[in-house]
Hints:
The complex is a heterodimer of chains A (about 100) and B (about 250). With about 100 residues, chain A is an all-alpha fold.
Amino acid sequence: MHEMTAIHDESKTQYFWVWGGLLLLTAIEVFLAYEQFFAPIKMLLILLGLSVIKAALIILYFMHLKFETRRMRYVLMVAGVVCLSLMSMFFADAVRILRLGVKIS
Amino acid sequence: MAEVAIQHPSAQAYEPPLFGAYSKKVGMWLFLLSDSLTFGALLFAYSYGRIATAHWPTPFGKHSIANATIMTACLLSSSLTMVLAVLAARRRDERWTFLWLLGTMVFGSAFVVLHAFEWNGLIHEGMRPFSNPWAKDVPQFGGTFFALTGMHMLHVTIGVVYLGVVAMRRKFLPILLALWALAFFLTPSDNVFHHGSHVLLASAVVAGMVLWFKPKKYDAHDVEVSGLYWHFVDLVWMFIFPLVYLMSTRIV
């Protein structure tokens, strides 16, 4: 194993905790869907928020990004988040269509 | 100049790479970054349709949600076994690396099988890429659903083959071909497994080329890189599950 592979806490316990946390967050999502507490757009935002937390746990612990160099962390995350955020601009249009309807010529 | 370089006191020193990681790992991260944009586009297209369409169909009842929740648990558990395989590979414990990789493949295969059964059910109910029995004015529902979940199922299947190659190398090829033959010859022609089996055949051809033209014994780095791919597949499902299933529930 190369020296550059960061030496960090390799205990299995943390991975079991992360796994348990991910299962718990999934259970919360399913509960919210069953109870249907919120209107679709609010529900979408809440579910996406929970999914972002789950994605962060997977990336940081399972994919070991937490233990990579700072340079690698920033380059990957900034590039990914910026590119995906650019796609969000379409949502404004989706909400507009829902409120105003589609113009039929 | 050459003499100067040889006499330099740090000539034997190890030069750290730019990102502090070996090139294969950086390469996989870059691939995953590009793949996240593919899935991002599909997910955003689905979400756009979901928000912008008032009568979006809600075909997923309790049974479908329970099924999808089990599938999610399978993928999350497979990520745990994958990370344990990476730890075993770092310890150079070949037996446990193999066993944990096998466990990951079993969870991944369970996911694909459950998902394919669900596709079969939806197709039998009349869902097609350009029509569905629940909302006649939202014909795009089937197309967006099949494109998104199909792309993900393809990734999981390729992931299982990838892990099989890393764990068993050439011994995996006959298993792969046997699975293809089982899925192709023992299922009717209108079954998802029948058509999906061709992914196994294509994977066997590609895996065979890799194993014959570039044979090697896969080490801890290879296990870690395959793990990155596997966790990414898990990560994508964390967005598909709420967006596709939980946002289209029909709970009464």
